[in-house]
Design a protein that fits this description.
This protein is α+β, with helices and mostly antiparallel strands. It folds into two domains: 15-170, 3-Layer(aba) Sandwich (NADH Oxidase), CATH 3.40.109; 186-292, no CATH class. Helices cover 42% and strands 10% of the residues. The longest helix has 28 residues, at 76-103. The termini are far apart.
Length: 306
């Protein structure tokens, strides 16, 4: 359910960064920052966004904190429910803030946190705005070696949202002058596909093939497997029962990640780093080792590094 909040503006219809911040926090965000669409580093983003929102002048990036312990459970139903519920929060906050901006006389749109996307563009980029580079430009964090944005206080346990508006915000945010990722490499140890390399490089295909199995391409592969199977018996030889019901669950209740362990084990962030600092070995035993010992099906392309 969407609640309603009000944006404070001055007599000249100018909007301060503080007013935007108050609006987003009242709507439920945990942090936010605004940045011009002309900000350095967002050139390619601006080009794409203006095709869909030609009047865009400002991006407002915000974060929603997720419950860390839910993400750290090896029962991925707990983690995926957290992703789903936090994702709904992001979209509700976006709609609430957009309503406030429109009520104040501005144009604004609320791109979804995740889905739906412009799937007619597939396999080219289907999303209207890329939340990560906007978040970096707006000072909401920096991408770590796991390629997720790490907020300086909240760490990796966040989801990102972006508002697009024609309101010109005074005193835009600046990118962080430091990287919250201190390269502990726990994400490297926890990744079941080896997609995150010890040298900091990243194998996108390996991550995508496994973690997003029940999303776009994985779904297409599953459908093709059905089509190629002559009958039910042949299908069940190729696809285990638990894989079929897992796909059913994602179709019925929202797509689920197979891993996302890199987010789960990341200790970075001022508000969550204490257990790691107090006892690194215990943190690894409690948080990283259970994922390394977990028996699970890994999805990979034949001949890949996985």
């Amino acid at each position: 359910m969407t609640s309603y909040v009000k944006l404070t503006i001055d007599d000249n219809k100018a909007v301060s960064a503080e007013a935007i911040r108050e609006l987003l926090l009242e709507a439920g965000a945990d942090d936010c920052g605004s940045v011009s669409v002309d900000a350095p580093g967002l050139e390619s983003e601006k080009e794409i966004v203006l095709k869909h929102v030609p009047w865009a002048k400002t991006f407002v990036s915000f974060v929603v904190r997720m419950n860390t312990e839910s993400l750290r459970s090896t029962a991925r139903s707990l983690a995926n429910n957290e992703f789903h519920q936090a994702g709904h929060e992001v979209d509700n906050i976006s709609r609430t803030a957009t309503r406030a901006l429109e009520s104040a006389g501005f144009r604004a749109v609320a791109p979804p946190m995740g889905f739906p996307m412009e799937m007619d563009n597939w396999p080219e980029r289907p999303w209207v705005v890329a939340h990560k580079p906007v978040a970096e430009a707006a000072g909401m964090g920096v991408m770590g070696i796991h390629r997720c944005v790490i907020h300086p206080a909240l760490g990796s346990s966040i989801l990102l949202g972006t508002l697009i508006t024609d309101a010109e915000i005074k005193d835009h945010a600046q990118p962080l002058d430091f990287n919250p990722c201190f390269e502990c490499r726990l994400c490297v140890a926890a990744c079941p596909t080896g997609a995150i390399k010890t040298d900091g490089s990243f194998d996108f295909a390996s991550c995508y093939t496994h973690n997003y199995r029940e999303f776009m391409s994985g779904f297409s592969d599953w459908v093709e497997t059905i089509a190629d199977s002559g009958n039910a018996r042949q299908y069940r030889k190729r696809v285990a029962d638990h894989e079929s019901v897992s796909m059913w669950q994602s179709l019925g209740f929202g797509p689920n990640y197979k891993a996302a362990y890199c987010i789960a084990v990341c200790p970075a962030g001022e508000n969550i780093i204490k257990p790691y600092k107090e006892n690194k070995k215990q943190f690894i035993d409690d948080t990283v080792r259970p994922f390394r010992q977990k028996e699970e099906t890994i999805y990979a392309v034949k001949g890949s590094d996985v």
